Amino acid sequence: MSHTHSHDHHHTLAPSGQGTVMLNIGGGIGALIIYTPGRLHGHEIEVSPAATPGERTHAAVRARYVRGGVTFCVVLDALPQGRYLIWQAGDEPLAEIEVRGGAVAEFTWPATAVPGRTLLSV
Predict the structure, then answer these.
(1) CB contact at 8 A, 117 and 46
(2) How far apart are CA 69 and CA 60, in angstroms?
(3) Per-residue pLDDT reduced to its tens digit, 49-69
């Protein structure tokens, strides 16, 4: 269960090990990976369908150990295909991206952008 109150802190998350991400994609369902700078580790990033910006979902930036080092990213799967908004702080979307069914869309968070609202999960 989670709530959507803004907080001034971020989550402390253990790094993900190898092979810990399984994606639910196929047919009309896709996924989105948002690569971020390491300074965003633990912050929640929000996305919403472009047609319904109030229907946001979020996930935390996690450290992922890959060949050659560590990458920081958000992984959102089971997204119905369509256009999605990626949100930064406030009410301005950072970007819009197409998620296709059976595929993984990728976005790189700009170094100068601020993170989305930090949400506390309980």
Answers:
(1) yes
(2) 19
(3) 999 999 999 999 999 988 888
